[in-house]
Amino acid sequence: MSMDRGFGFTRRAAVVALMASVALAGCGSKSEAPSGEALKAASAAGAIEKPVLKLGFIKLTDMAPLAIAKEKGFFAEEGLNVTLEPQANWKVLLDGVIGGQLDGAHMLAGQPIAATLGIGTQADLIAPLSLDLNGNAITVSNKVWAQMEPTLPKGPDGKPTHPISASALKPIVDSYKQQGKPFNMGMVFPVSTHNYELRYWLAAGGLNPGYYLPGDIKGTTDADVQLSVTPPPQMPATLEAGTIEGYCVGEPWNQAAVQKKIGVPVVTDDGIWHDNPEKVFSIRKDFAEKYPNTTAAMLRAIIKAQQWLDADGGKNRAEAVKILSQPNYVGADAQVIAASMTGKFTFEPGDTRPAPGFNIFFDKYAGYPFYSDAIWYMTQMRRWGQIPADHDDSWYVEKAKAVYRPDLYLAAANKLVSDKVIPAASVPETDGFKPVDNGFLDHVPYDGHKPNAYIQSLKIGLKQGQKVTASGVTGG
């Protein structure tokens, strides 16, 4: 079957669909909002309760499913009039969804989980869809790279062998300590994938990225490397100013450092955790309950966009790059966006390597919100002290199921399967848990059914019975 179904959807058809949905919504088509089991069984083809929507995003290439759903007419095809609005930073975006100024958003996977747990803020958010796999990298300054590069193993072509371990960074960090200077690195938000990936990479190389005290957003207790928050578009300028010596961020802001010749990516997140889940599409729980058909329509449109992005080996990626380069979306040079989004990744001038899986939006069940992915994020929150106390395995599963909503994803995806829009094989048959994952940089296996055993198996990080205090880690 064709993987680009819907490309022929005309502007006239979009307008007709939108007008019809508005007319239905204005003629008493709203019904009592289902909840609980009734919500799960909500019709995926019912009248749209709220056809006019505003969705938020941060200027990163992994917001692509939202831009494509808008620009290729997939939202309009579902009877939705969607405005996409860039946000200044992840905190502003989160507050916009919680406060209702935004109906939903391209969001860090850790944000709806943390909000539900009351880390930083308290709100009932859900993640009915995962937006992508992979898409981040860790970049260091030219100064740091000049010290790391001579120590690295090289391939037959004389270029560094990837993935590069943070053990190559450890002597440099140690020298900073001896000089009484902090070694500073940036990430985008305390509960971001980037924070946990950067911490994982550092810890796997023998460096402690620090612990969070209760209520603390800095997470620098006992830290060898001081991590701080910088909004993604500001990362290159902050690196160039010397405020930080490296950062973990999504594209195109690693490639921007390469183009500006101010830094060198040393590892992609696929090298830290193979095919890791990245962003999610998040909405308030009460939005899904009040507007079940609108929710299903949004998900169907986004799933169509995800399929379009991965269709036929990425044949549409060049067009996607042009769309994303527009100032109302990512607003970076098309050349910079293309450097990571078209099947390759540039580490430094003259070192461009194949990276067909750097951005995955539809393949490998990228859209399905697996409980085991949510649980992994919680293991890292516990590992570094954001979850301050121990909980049994069932607690992790319970919290994951409160946030990640594969039932809503399946309602949308199965409707697309029945309509022959996406293939049945693209929807997983699963209990929501992936098999044991051995795709990590340090080769520590992860079993989502056994979060506490996994936490115990990691060399650096809190263990059973340990807590973080102002004087350091105690207990255990």
From TrEMBL:
Compartments where found: Endomembrane system
Highest rank taxon of the organism: Bacteria
UniProt main location, coarse: membrane
Keyword terms, alphabetized: Cell inner membrane, Cell membrane, Membrane, Signal, Transport
Signal peptide: 1-25
Protein known as: ABC transporter substrate-binding protein
Organism of derivation: Novosphingobium beihaiensis
Source organism phylogeny: Bacteria, Pseudomonadati, Pseudomonadota, Alphaproteobacteria, Sphingomonadales
